[in-house]
Amino acid sequence: MLEGKLGMVFGVANHRSIAWGIGQALAGAGARLAFTYQGDRLKDTVSDLAGTLSGSLTLPCDVLDDAQVDEAFERVDREFGGLDILVHSIAFAPREALENPFVETTRDAFNTAMDISAYSLVQLARKAAPLMEKRGGGSIITMTYLGSGRVFPKYNVMGVAKAALEASVRYLASDLGPRNIRVNAISAGPIRTLAGRSIQGFTRMEEHVREVAPLRRNTEAGEVGDVAVFLASSLSRNVTGVTLFCDSGYHAMGM
Ligand code: NAD
Q1: Catalytic residue check, 145
Q2: One of 37, 119, 145, 250 is an active-site residue; which one?
Q3: Distance, CA of 248 to CA of 91 (rounded, Å)
Q4: Cα(158)–Cα(230) distance, rounded to whole angstroms?
Q5: Taking CB atoms and a 6 Å cutoff, what residues make up the pocket around ligand 1?
Q6: What confidence category does residue 34 fall into, taking pLDDT thresholds of 50, 70 and 90?
Q7: Which atom of ligand 1 is the closest one to the Cα of 37?
Q8: What DSSP line would sit under 161-174, residue for residue?
Q9: Residue 95's pLDDT is what?
Q10: Given pLDDT bands bounded at 50, 70 and 90, which one contains residue 217?
Q11: How far is the CA of 210 from the centre of ligand 1 (A)?
């Protein structure tokens, strides 16, 4: 479904990362991918994973470093000559902001969470757009969570950042739609990743989903990957500005 498509995937930290589940699914559907990693400490892990997919690239990119972001897109433009798919699977909040009551959130922690988890989508979309235009359009996909609209204990400032991220998806979809670039979010149920486990009470969240979600089970990264294949492919060519749930149906429940 994605034969000949070119993609960039931001947010692989290890084999459990949702970005890796998405990367494998996109590559399985035929896409050639560039994976970025944040900081040298992740370089070997991400290079080893990417090395299992033919034709893939790995490049450094910390979204707080504008020069590194510019270089990543320049390199992809040189090597690929354009871009069809961008996957944004990045989030961060300082630990204390996920431990203390939300009302205690400091300005610094608030700004950091918003910068890395929400603004970075705007930044990456702006850089991707000219490369996607060369290919006649593209698909931008980001990762969000139900905590954007409802309160989950200890999700705190990350919920605020996800609300901003989802609103950014709609504004970006409006700006970039005339250039045939679509922008959508996938709202996943709890998945046991590095970021997931940093939320206190994560195990309880998983248990709760198993108990009450319509499908009575948790979400797997590969299932999110399959939704990403749909959003990256021409099957979703009329879909933009949407938050699509991949959460065993949990979002539909009141009790
Ligand atoms: P993860 O820890 O594997 O991935 C988070 C990634 O963000 C890491 O690769 C990390 O390097 C990257 N990152 C953080 N700061 C960065 C920076 N300054 N520059 C570049 N990259 C940076 O965890 P994950 O669960 O795969 O998270 C991926 C996305 O999915 C996040 O947006 C997360 O909020 C979202 N999500 C996760 C779950 C879950 O339960 N795990 C559920 C819904 C949504």
Answers
A1: yes
A2: 145
A3: 22
A4: 26
A5: 11-13, 17-19, 38, 62-64, 89-92, 116, 143-145, 188, 190-191, 193-196
A6: very high
A7: 11
A8: HHHHHHHHHHHHHH
A9: 96
A10: very high
A11: 22
The reply to whether 250 belongs to the active site is no
**Residue 199 CA, closest ligand 1 atom number:** 40
Closest C-alpha among 22, 80, 84, 76 to residue 49: 22
Which two tokens mark 165? Answer: 């991220």
**What are the structural domains of the chain?**
6-248 (3.40.50.720)
Q: Which residue's CA is the nearest one to ligand 1's atom 40?
A: 190
pTM (predicted TM-score): 0.99
Could you report the per-residue pLDDT of 110-148, keeping only the tens digit for each? Answer: 999 999 999 999 999 999 999 999 999 999 999 999 999
81-96 mean pLDDT: 98
Residue 248: count of CB within 10 angstroms of its CB: 22
Contact present, 76 and 57 (Cβ < 8 Å): yes
Residue 216 alpha carbon to ligand 1 centre in Å: 25
Say how many Å lie between the CA of residue 10 and the centre of ligand 1.
9
| Sheet arrangement for strand 6-10 | 57-60, 32-37, 6-10, 85-88, 138-144, 181-188, 243-246
C-alpha 216/C-alpha 41 separation (Å) is 37
- Other Cβ atoms closer than 10 A to 40: 8
pLDDT of residue 91: 98
